[in-house]
Amino acid sequence: MRARHRAAAVITALGLILATFVPSLAQTLTARQSEAVATYERALGDFKAILSERRRQIDAKQPLPNLPGQALYLARVAVISAYKDLTDVMPSRTGRPNKFEIPPPAYFDADIEPLVDEYSKLFEIMEAPPAGAQNSATPFKDVVDLAVAIARAKGLAPDHAEAAGRISLGLFFAETNGKQNVRNGRSNTYMGSFQTGPSEDRNGHRKWDAIKGEIAAADPGLSARDDKEEARARGTDHRFNHWTNVRDGLMNAHADIFREIPGIVKTLPDPIDQMKLFELIQIVPTPTRAALRSGDLLNYRVSSPTIMKHLRNNSIFAFGQADRARTSASFREILGAMWLFKRKFEKAMAKYAEIKPR
Fold first, then answer.
1. How does pLDDT run across 77-87, given as a tens digit for each residue?
2. How far apart are alpha carbons 291 and 302 in whole angstroms?
3. CA angle, 166 then 169 then 170, to 5°
4. What is d(CA 47, CA 300) in angstroms, rounded to the nearest whole number?
5. For residues 250 and 145, what is the distance between their CA atoms, to the nearest angstrom?
6. Burial class, 285, CB count within 10 angstroms (exposed 0-12 / middle 13-18 / buried 19+)
7. How much is the pTM?
8. Which helix (H) or strand (E) holds 330?
């Protein structure tokens, strides 16, 4: 018993000594580390607050602000950015692997997975298709069939036309997570399965009309389906008919680039990299086309502040001070920074494997 008391007394004495001579963890942090911790905790608190506010508004059926998803998106970017800045100065805080498969754990704290789940649920509610949206029973097959038919009309061989179908399915997942006829919580302009604006939809429709006869001659069945969907969508916003929005979206931005697929697959043999490149045609079309024309795609460099802003607004170079301080980037670097798209493209690859032509 005396030995036990003596041991306890020694432990108490050691505790007093440690408390006197060993600084606390907070005291051992550098000023930069303390600032990073505080910034992350503040960003995390802000993210929780906007999630809670939007959930309360939706559950109470209150009117939502204009662009109700924008504040959510910015708060999510801020919390990931703050975490990256934190792990830059405190590598010990680097997170464990997460279920979203965000590949650099230094960018994402797996402890906030439930918050990101709630984020996704809120966007599903805010972006639900409008009443009267014209769904397809075969939305994924439609994307592939239309892309293959367009690519064949542009002169591609069957194997490269199939690549166009696979790439286009990736675009569908990148734009809407494979959900048809959705609205947009961050924009009043871009809507539908391929997230096009009214002018883009009209432009794509005009381009489709120009090759419709060729399509009809090559694939009467697909042409008949097109006639049926065109009749169904008459008098409505074509962006909320899945078929016509996919068709017009592909014709507006991507059909002419399909001709470049033979060269693209040589430069980018990874199908996911091919999807990334075509998604960049959605995000920053002018420099992407210039890069393709340059003959040195991967080393082509962009330095326009406007282009860098567009990239950041689409989760590329958006996270952490080091990324956001970039004033230029090569296409090799841009493709590498599109890690947040990877999981979407993997889903597209899996879906394509289910429906691809035999």
1. 999 999 999 99
2. 9
3. 90
4. 36
5. 12
6. middle
7. 0.89
8. strand 329-330
